[in-house]
From TrEMBL:
It holds the Pfam family Glyco_hydro_130. GO terms for molecular function: glycosyltransferase activity; hydrolase activity. PANTHER family: GLYCOSIDASE. Belongs to the glycosyl hydrolase 130 family. It comes from Treponema parvum. The lineage of its organism: Bacteria, Pseudomonadati, Spirochaetota, Spirochaetia, Spirochaetales. CDD domains: GH130 (cd08993). Keywords: Glycosyltransferase, Hydrolase, Transferase. This is Glycoside hydrolase family 130 protein.
């Protein structure tokens, strides 16, 4: 299938193994078919990945031609000593079936952040009355989850900053105000703060769709921010829709292309943008991103790790099907946000 954009990835982005996935369904020791959109952090002396697993696909006339016909979705842990080679836990970690709240029927798209040696999870929750964004704490032994906060509908793609700023917690998020846009996608990145991770407010627009020339459909947070000397470095997803496009993937019309961008926020005032990439950071280009998958032409970064040697590892879902890894140097990424 053809690439859906004329943009190209930043020249100093290096795809690990030429874009071959670091995690796919064949590596999961339980039922799995789509393994993607993972959160990744360093925790308890190892790299920890919490991935989304859509499983139990009901076959259509050909692979992925039946649409969203899956038995369920769960979250699973994988672990690594170096951030490159991964091994999955023997059992799934968490799913809506483990909740006492019968209103929630699916949990997905995890994002991980470590704050003061505690591991926090942001997630999307499908309910019978709208899509909610959740925040939970995961126990140190990675065995249990305690939900702290659930948003009103419709809000998602939440990510937490890894420390308090001026004695407040901060998060980025993507509300979905469909009524104000005649039912069409036109979503932006917002920022809110909280005294306790439970009650959130003082919300304000951070980055509007109109500011990014390679997006015309929606923007949203991607991987949680990392702290640098120059500011908070954070990824975002940028979506371009071309209504002239026809069939692509299993859907009758898949007209969207997801790309990754990056921006730098002020350390003391994260509502202030220092700068953002004027061109995309990562664009669908490889076989796993363009030719093969459930939804092709999708790049969705969910984890970013800054190493001691200033290498930045960026983990991203490709075509809603597999998890991949790209690396770059910190100074190169910051240069995109300050030029």
């Amino acid at each position: 299938m053809p690439a859906m954009t004329d943009y190209h990835s930043f020249s100093r982005i290096n795809r690990y193994l030429n874009g071959k996935p670091v995690l796919d369904a064949s590596m999961v020791p339980y039922e799995a078919q789509l393994v993607f959109n993972a959160g990744v952090v360093k925790f308890n002396g190892e790299y920890v990945m919490l991935f989304r697993d859509d499983y139990g696909y009901i076959d259509g006339p050909s692979r992925f031609m039946g649409g969203n016909k899956f038995k369920g979705t769960c979250l699973g842990f994988a672990r690594s000593n170096d951030g490159y080679a991964w091994k999955c836990d023997a059992e799934p970690f968490w799913s809506a079936e483990k909740l006492s709240d019968n209103e929630i029927f699916r949990i997905y798209d995890p994002r991980l952040t470590v704050i003061e040696d505690r591991l926090y999870l942001c997630f999307a929750a499908d309910t019978y009355h709208g899509l909610r964004g959740g925040i939970a704490e995961i126990s140190k032994n990675l065995n249990s989850v305690t939900i702290i906060s659930l948003s009103l509908p419709d809000n998602r793609n939440m990510v937490l900053f890894p420390e308090k700023i001026n004695d407040k917690y901060y998060r980025l998020e993507r509300p979905m105000p469909v009524y104000s846009h005649d039912g069409k996608d036109c979503f932006d990145i917002w920022i809110s703060n909280s005294p306790d991770l439970r009650y959130w407010g003082e919300s304000s627009l951070l980055l509007g769709l109109e500011s990014i020339r390679y997006a015309n459909d929606k923007l949203g947070p991607a991987a949680p921010p990392v702290k640098t000397d120059k500011g908070w470095l954070t990824l975002f997803h940028a979506v371009h829709k071309d209504t002239l496009r026809g069939k692509n993937g299993w859907e009758e019309k898949w007209q969207k292309c997801y790309m990754a961008g990056i921006m730098l926020l002020d350390l003391q005032n994260p509502q202030k943008i220092i700068g953002f990439s004027k061109e995309p950071l990562i664009v669908p280009e490889t076989h796993w991103e363009v030719d093969e998958g459930f939804r092709t032409n999708v790049i969705f970064p969910g984890g970013m790790i800054l190493e001691d040697n200033d290498e930045v590892k960026i983990y991203y879902g490709a075509s809603d099907t597999v998890e991949c890894l790209a690396t770059a140097q910190l100074e190169d990424l910051i240069s995109l946000c300050t030029c």
